Amino acid sequence: MANETARLPTVVDTLPKAELHLHLEGGIRPETAVELAERHGSPITAEEVAARYRYSDFSGFIEAFKWVTSFLRDPEDYALITRRLLDELLHQNIVYAEITISAGVMLRRMQNVEANFTAIREAASTVVYNRLRTAWIFDATRQFGPDSATEVARWAAKLEKSGVVAFGMGGEELSFPATSFRPAFDLARNAGLRIVCHAGELGGVDSVREAIEILGAERIGHGIALMHDPAFADSLATRRIVLENCLTSNLLTGALAKQTGKPDATIADHPLRKLLEKGSLITLSTDDPAMFHTDLLTEYSRAASLGLSKEQLLQLAEQSFHAAFLPPEEKRKLLEDFQTAARAAGLV
Ligand SMILES: [Zn+2]
To answer: How far apart are CA 227 and CA 211, in angstroms?
Structure first.
């Protein structure tokens, strides 16, 4: 878990919560990485992982992601990291999580996507996790190019009946243009999958526009570049397009420094509050909790440090249910539970 002493409690701590932007592999805590490496006969120390989990820019983060995922070799490894992540989510009273799986990385390593996914799903459906509903997003890695993305979309479509709800794309935003990924996203959409895309993280407003207009994104991963174009941000809110903000991630990857033009940017420079007050629809997430030394409670605590009111924190928490890719009935039930808990806690 993140350093608990650094975290101040917030009104959402005890409420049931949802998290929508969360990478399975980014949840590998140092001790789990040590265990995986040991299992495969290439021992590492927790200190080495801690050193790898420190970055000064986005490519440093990508390198660390590549390194830690190199210890994921078979389905049982994926089952293990799933259990560890879900344990953390339960501990924070997260009742619904959409977890992103880097299927592009599995394909790159010539692994059996279906076998890995089956192990993940089975791990998540054990009785211990009854209180935690999970859904899965298959993610293409942008710098692997359009053919790899199309292959990921094919697998996502094939496993749509098994719990994959959406197709998305992350990685190096400035590597390939959005147009080259249109076939992959079209394939996914035609298979009935929902669409997400990382954009406006390191890229500009145009990257967000392309993710929506060309790829059909319904939710934008990060989208902090919208701080430069309030009118466009307004138009997204009108179209019910949601921004998945991840405060600590943006700080540690250097995305915040890049977007603000301040090399020494801090969380206080994050545009979340301004965007929220201008009407953007925003959810709060950890992105890669282990790799960014955070968890969802810490992200809410950091949001509170931006000066968000109790009502605004509740608004973020509730938005995570509204923006979920769930059937309407299930969504209504989770929203009712959230509102009941907020009332019982005297928060509304
Ligand atoms: Zn992400």
So the answer is: 17
Which pLDDT score is estimated for 56?
A: 86
Token duo for residue 221: 């991963």
**Sign of the dihedral through C-alpha 340, 344, 345, 348:** positive
Q: How far is the CA of 217 from the centre of ligand 1 (A)?
A: 14
Judge whether 32 and 325 are in contact, CB under 8 Å. no
| CA 290–ligand 1 middle distance (angstroms) | 13
The count of C-alpha atoms lying within 13 angstroms of the C-alpha of 52, restricted to the half-sphere facing its C-beta, is: 22
DSSP 52-91: HT--SSHHHHHHHHHHHHTT--SHHHHHHHHHHHHHHHHH
pLDDT profile of the chain (348 residues), mean per 10: 64 97 98 97 94 94 97 98 98 98 97 98 95 97 97 98 97 96 98 98 98 98 98 97 98 97 97 98 98 98 97 98 97 98 95
CA 340 to ligand 1 center in whole angstroms: 31
Task: Give me the active site residues, please.
Answer: 201
- Report the CATH number of the 4-339 domain: 3.20.20.140
Cα-to-centroid distance, 278 and ligand 1 (Å): 24
How much is the pLDDT for 6? 66
Q: What does pTM read for this prediction?
A: 0.96
pLDDT of residue 8: 87
* AA identity, residue 167: F
In the chain, what are the domain boundaries?
4-339
The two tokens of residue 182 are: 């249109």
**Cα 19–25–29 angle (5° rounding)?**
90
Residue 146 CA, ligand 1 centroid: distance in Å: 19
